[in-house]
Amino acid sequence: MTLSRRNFLKGSVATAIAANGLTLFPAGKVFASDTITIPSATHYGPFKAVVKGGTLIGVQPINDVDPFPTEMLTKGVLSRTYSDTRIKYPMVRKSLLEDPLGNHNPHLRGKEPFVRVDWDTAIALTAFCIARTVEKHGNEAVFSSSYGGWSHCGVNRPQTLQGRFFNLIGGQSICAGDYSAGASEVILPHVIGDMEVYSPQTAWEIVEKNTEVVLFIGCDPWKTNRVEFRVADHSMQKHWEAFKEKGIKFVSINPQQTQTDKAVGSEMINIRPNTDTALFTAMSYHLYKTGQHDKAYIDKYTVGFDKYLAYLIGDEDGVVKTPEWAEEITGLPAAKIKELAELCVTKRTQIAAGWALQRADHGEMIHWSIINFAAIAGKIGKPGEGAGFSWHYGNGGMPASGKRMPIGLSQGRNPITKTCPVVMVSDMLKNPGKAYTRDGSNLTLPKAKLIYNAGNNLLSHQQDTNELIKALNDNIDTIICHEPWWCATAKYSDIVLPTTTTLERDDISSGGTYSNNKIYAMRQVIEPVGESLDDYEIFSRLAFMFNVHKEFTEGKTMYQHVKASYEASDATDDFKTFWQNGITHVSTPAVANSFVRHGDFYADPIKNPLHTPSGKIELYSSTIAGFKANSCPPMPQWIPPFEWLGNAKKGQVHVLSPHPWMRLHSQMANADVNSYESVDGRQIVLINKQDAAERGVKDGDVVEVYNDRGVLLAGARITDEAMPGVIYIHEGAWLQLDSKGRCNSGSINMLTSSQPTSGLAQATSANTCLAYFKKCTDAETPNQAYTPAKVVKSDFKVDIWSLQLGKRLKAVAAENGPEQSPGEKLFYGSCTLCHAAPHPSDFTYKQWKGITNSMFPRAGLNEKDRKLVLEFLQENAKKG
């Protein structure tokens, strides 16, 4: 029997849960014969689902694998599975349903009710909208906003399956880059030969033996390692605790004291947001001025010091970059800047910089300035020293197995080459075909008319929400959404296809972004809620409509694909054993415990050059200079952001939007654990005591935060852990607008700007944001973001024949592309599984050689396959 919310609520198990609260079952608990446990896994960790009578009643963590399971796993997963916000049936916005060939009234998105339809009607309307768009405007007009893969931790993620389907019918325009590390993933391959932000870090053992100082810069591993792109196992904390026990000194540069800082006892240095580049510029100058720079290291391992030095001493602009100069910018005393520089150069120092720093105006500059400082101090490549940009993610520091992990279904080659940087979505909608630059290439934005969204909450993640909504309503004919819950993106869509959650489908995943030492079975735990279908089934049905079903499915069920994926990995257990146990371990060679980031380069830069044009660390980049990209100089420079405390008007504060403690972006916002993030149902805003007192705000008050871009209401949490002049609103709250256009839920992107970092990366500058705040006295209603959309009955029946589907689908049938080489097949089959498939021309061959060092193990390729992929990339990479 298909489980519905109504049937669930009638059951005695649900009644007990409602009366007594959820139960956390200890790992060793033995259950009665009517209760079973099923192994599975999520972004929040591996677990055994406790199921009674077909109903999930609890989650049992696996403590020998995950020593610190979070409440997102133990409570949140169950809570959101049976949330009232579940979308149980296919839904179509009333205007589209009643006049599919005519005016869909896009201005009514988010306001007009939906009508429940059957799956045949939903698939027919979806196919019609796709076919009509392609027929009138070409495949470029179908735009995928499904850039990320965070909705599901398995290898067969919604956006991958979407890419697979659309690439079989002529392609789709896609997003480029990501919100997480968009600036650095473009600039750092030019500087140090790899993205760095997605690269393994020096092994824990090396740090423990060698490091004397860890310098956190906007980095909070205790929080950000609570979730994983694949499966979190929370193996990081014990290592940081061991570092503290050993006596390693921790220093934290951050406007706020973090949970990590509390755990390891960091010395706090509160800095003005967006000014870290000025700090490290002055620290580099101080080392040079006092003769503490490592001239031998600079000569052997870097290029461009002469040009960078000219900037430091003011030859370029007449401004000497002294600590006194930086004091005026950062708010830090010059004496402290000198002390910090000397601490780093005299002690074996490991710099751990977070990604949040570069989500700011001119974000390309900050990580580069840290690299320059670390190189001038002679640190990079030495055991337990240097600069790392992924310590806070994927248990950075875990030794890597180097073994092949399972991979999912290939997206294949996308015939459409048009891309849009994620931060430029609104710009693309308002200015279709607009010319722009990215990473030295001259490009044009897609001309989108249909948005297809699977596995991404666009209305939550995109900056400047008001701008986005207007751009969607003014320019997009149709928005189609795959979604389990009534989040804002679903509510603002035209066709909503209800998808299963992780617990209602089979898949496979692996543990450790870098360690790659575990493979997890993601077994289906319960039957789909309502009439929801998994994304594979939805795209299979669409593929049937477009006559590519055989190519999409290869004649296999998802279970068969999962089995084949496992058997192609380096796992040693047979599949039956693995599937029964839910986990298999993959051995890690002992030598991995001695890994040093860039250690080979340090040992022999001639034999092991970096994948930069010079083979060395580029303190100044001639390549970047040649790009002449707007607002991106060829070396790290302090450039005042468009908004910061240095140009704030009276009463304005800097607004930062870090990751939440009990959510994964907007996931878990509808679960009971979100109470940790909220006051009376609204997102919390952390406010310094002084700022709150000046505005008459008390703890628990509803606060109105506003600027020229928008307004939100949030719940005040008064603290002395945040510096004056800076407030914090965690990203990911769902959107709900009141009659005045204010977000009644506290969604941060009502305030953030969609202005890109520069003409180089075109990345997000969300952390460059000023706003005012005051006590709110006119909140209209409680937060209604976590209530379902309004659904009405309609007697209207779609005349499927009037859609002329046969004619339309035949007219847009894709032609077979050119025969693919073995390397091309492997690239599109194995290396396109995380975000939207990259194009070979996105990077130079040298850059690809650096990037694939981290990519190949997760792509499941052996040495022979890797060679074929590199041959394909060498032939098709960006020239230069």
TrEMBL record:
It holds the Pfam family Molydop_binding. Residues 40-82 form the Molybdopterin oxidoreductase N-terminal domain. Residues 86-543 form the Molybdopterin oxidoreductase domain. The keyword Transcription regulation does not apply. Residues 655-769 form the Molybdopterin dinucleotide-binding domain. Coiled coil: none annotated. Its cofactor is Mo-bis(molybdopterin guanine dinucleotide). Gene3D superfamilies: 2.40.40.20, 3.40.50.740, Dimethylsulfoxide Reductase, domain 2 (3.40.228.10), Dimethylsulfoxide Reductase, domain 3 (3.90.55.10). Keywords: Metal-binding, Molybdenum, Oxidoreductase, Signal. Belongs to the prokaryotic molybdopterin-containing oxidoreductase family. This is Molybdopterin-dependent oxidoreductase. It comes from Photobacterium piscicola. The lineage of its organism: Bacteria, Pseudomonadati, Pseudomonadota, Gammaproteobacteria, Vibrionales.
